[in-house]
Structures are given as structure tokens and as C-alpha cells.
Amino acid sequence: MDSNSNTVVVTGFGPFRQHLVNSSWEAVKEMSKLGLGENIDLHIMQLPVAYRKAKELVCKIWGTLQPLLTVHIGLASSSKAIIILEQCGKNKGYKEMDVCGFCPEDGCCLLDGPERIESTINMKTLWKNISVEGIDVAFSRDAGRYICDYTYYTSLYYGNGRAAFIHVPPLSKLLTADFLGRALQIIILEMLKQCGEKTE
Question: What's the pTM?
């Protein structure tokens, strides 16, 4: 599958549990106002916290837009003031019900899929090179076995690894949507540098 070399899709999630306002989607909306430069055709999309619908929309992203990169942003509700760069998505272990009360059969994303898929973006390199004033950035290999991980794995599978996942903290007086949006812009631009190096 050829990618549209200047298309980038960034997704956030809708409300779930006690999070009536999901910081991931608020941050994505703010980031879209800033853009990723005039050469990037940026698309943003809100995904529901629902396994089947999120998978369907991710498949549509890769099937219709065929982006250079898709970056999924999720809320890490346990995270205080930290942004987490996720390296890989896992296929199994999904036992928590989504907002529709649904849980995947056998706790599995794709029955014949590999156990784990790594992003082509080197998150450890990104983590070492990135500096976002006012917030710590961390590296992780476990996106949490809920809709975030499930969506990431699906996207890595259909996008041949050309996906990334970033966990953001809940909104607060200091961590506003505007602040998180600017942080996402810095991080995604750094990811695009890696994509550029791979295509040169």
C-alpha cells in the first residue's frame, strides 16, 4: 500500500467512564489549530472508546487516506504530569468492557495477528531527543490492554507499522488543552523527521 507522503492523521478519543471531557481529543483539536507545517495535509478524527467502532474507523483511515503516518492520542487517567510515548501494540489480553459493554472475543484484536507489532517510529530515540518545557516525557512498551492498545495494534497492523501512540494526562489548571496541543505538535514534528529520514 503506497502512502500519501504528505497526509498525517491524528486521532483522539471521546468520553468514557468519569472522563466526560477526554484530554486526548481536546489536545488534538488544539494541535490542529497550530498545524504541522504547510507541507502536511493534516486530518483529525475522534474515535469512540469502543473496540469495534474504533477498529472500523482505523481501517477506514488506512484504506481511504493511506497516510504517511497516523498518530493516536489517548488519555492515561493514572498519569499525573507526564506524556508517554508507546513503542508497540499488543494483540491479546483485552478483558475490559468498552463504553458499549463489549469485550473482544478471546480478548484478542486479530485472531491470526502477531503477538506484538512495533512502530516504525523509534520512540526511544524520540524520547531521548525530545524536550517539552513544563512536562516530563516517558518511553513505554505497554499501552495498557484497553481501547488505546487495541486501536494502536490495529493501526500498526493495517498501516505496516506507520502508526504511533502518545498517552497524555488529564486536563488540569497547568496542563490545559492548549498546552498539550503545543506539546503534541513538537512531538509529532519530531516523528515526521524520522519518517523523512526513512524515505530519503
Answer: 0.95
